[in-house]
Write a structure and sequence with these properties.
The chain has one domain. The protein is built from 4 helices and 10 strands; from the N terminus they run αββαββββαββββα. It is of the alpha+beta class and about 160 residues long.
Length: about 160
């Protein structure tokens, strides 16, 4: 018996399988990465505002869990507040973050899927999951997470 894709039922099954595979591939998306960088920590502590970047915080407005700066062409989506970063504001936030924790915040570069730096991260918590790169140029970045043992912040440099 010669079976081909000519039967309507077989064609429908093949079409459904192809659509399911396409949907799964679309969900995978593109992801960037994060890389610990001591120089970024010092940039935040020196209150250097990066020209052409937009700044965001999460957590408390006066003692944030993290500060992120992304290139203007890479808007941040998710549970973050955009702030009007000035040297005085960055100094105040970084000083508060350092003063209120037993270990100071770490800095990290936020990289796209080609390894190009698109932003910076400053937090006393461990890295979030990798940044998701959206088709419109936006970036989804989860807020920072506490240490797995729940016993205070996880240091970035201890993990990488």
């Amino acid at each position: 018996m010669n079976r081909t894709l000519r039967s309507p039922a077989m064609s429908a099954c093949v079409l459904a399988a192809l659509m399911a595979l396409s949907a799964l591939a679309g969900c995978a998306g593109r992801y960037g990465s994060m890389r610990f960088d001591n120089a970024i920590q010092h940039e935040f502590e020196a209150a250097q505002v990066l020209p052409g970047d937009r700044y965001y915080t999460t957590g408390s407005e006066i003692d944030p869990a993290a500060i992120v700066a992304l290139r203007v062409d890479r808007p941040l989506r998710g549970a973050w507040r955009e702030i009007d970063a000035t040297p005085a504001l960055l100094k105040s936030l970084a000083d508060t973050m350092r003063r209120n924790r037993p270990v100071g915040p770490d800095g990290a570069a936020i990289l796209d899927d080609k390894g190009e730096r698109i932003g910076v991260w400053y937090s006393y918590f461990s890295y979030p999951p990798p940044p998701r790169l959206l088709d419109d140029g936006g970036v989804e970045l989860n807020p920072p997470i506490p240490a797995p043992d729940g016993d205070g912040p996880a240091r970035l440099r201890d993990q990488y």
